[in-house]
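Anyone else keep sequences and structure tokens together like this?

Example one:
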Amino acid sequence: MALAIAVEDPATADITDLLGAHLILMRAITPPGSVHALDVEALRGPDVTFWTARGGGVPVGCGAMKVLGLTRPGLVQGEIKSMHVREGHRGRGIAGLLVETVLENARQRGIARLSLETGSTRHFAAARRLYARFGFVECGPFGEYADDPHSAFMTRDLSTA
């Protein structure tokens, strides 16, 4: 299957179906108050870039980057958001291609630190391994996040990469 990754509007009908599946899954495996997935309107914000991975014209995965702004002088921080690969398409390297896309875009935009929040339970073990493979390391809460036993926080310094 040929795969195309491109910036798209998350409000496109077939993408909202993918995002709906993502939100349903997150709410099913994460307690209320610990789900930090963005809805479609938040993903359309001016500080967010949203990518879709399409196979055969159908969205099979997505990911986003939110620019958090200056965390200290000269350090712009971004956050990976809404990473999801449709069930049935997992294990094919799609998530890795999305992470590479986000990392490249972050570097091009001069983002010095890219961070993320994901789940801490077994349901998110594959996601944590994926991010670690791309050089992300565990860290504490960042931005507006608070300590949460259901969250794992990871970060990667891009200023020297």
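And example two:
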Amino acid sequence: MTAGSHRAAVCLALDGPDAVTTQRVPDEDLGPDSLRIAVRAAGVNFPDYLLTRGEYQLKLTPPFVPGMEVAGVVTECGQPSGGSATFPVGSAVIALTRTGGFAEEVVVGSEAVFPLPQPFSYREGATFLVAARTAYHALVDRAGLRSGEKVVVLGATGGVGLAAVQLAKSLGAQVVGVGSDPTKLAAVNTAGADHAVNHRDSDLVGTVRDLVGRVDVVFDPVGAFGAQAFRLLGWGGRYLVVGFASGTIPSFAANQILLKGASVLGVRAGEAARVDPTGFQRGMTRLLAFAAQGHLRPHISHEFRLEDAAAALATLSERRVTGRVVITTEQPPRAPEPSAPTQGPNSVEQH
């Protein structure tokens, strides 16, 4: 039985980010085929915010610790039962945690742990898995995206959207990224999109058709533009229902689906991994190869310390983020000891 404790950001009520506070929690016991990871950074995902409000598919009863993905260092290994991947103590890793990631340490089954891609910092590693895996399951497993096809990515300035842009380009597609902020859309261009479209400044359907004609795949984590975006599809097109970040759930006219020979496909990457673990591991092998080759890399616009996890969640919910938000577990610096004032106009310490 473990006897220690560590800091974690705990959701105490289903009242949103304001109900998240940092406190000490007991260390978790280490079971077989599991690893204890000293967390260096944790990615913040929109489902983490929804969990704190009780609005996600997974319903949790407080208190609980949000956090679906982390990067860190292996500090302890459970007894392997055979056939599971092993990581020696000291290995730099990334992991899918589902919950519990906003903490100084976490215990994770070895099947959900992967090596930190060589080019990545811990911050980048902590913001890679959920977005990249969602994009891969949508574009590859569900849509069967082929080289040369045309893809529209809605919500392209968000973490999942930017991952979808990068992955679609890596797979040889022509990509149109759609967003609403010209400053944020600069990141879409940097991610490799062939075209970046501000839907607030133009007619979405007309603009996209002028640029690329009809498209093969629409990747939609937003929900608000479903009826418009569906019109972009050509014959045999695939519409990927990835999420509803806008709070709007679109509906699609059955006659239009019939006339286009189109498919509307639901995307649940987490559930797919549990139903088909072999397919999940196969996809992860390919994603890690793309990351090692420099084709996939998270864009992080905001960074918070663990004690500011509530602010991190609020920032994400307020749509102020381009790409990803990350939480680090660095302790805040100690207050300096009082000292005699330094003379001169440049006596303020620079940080």
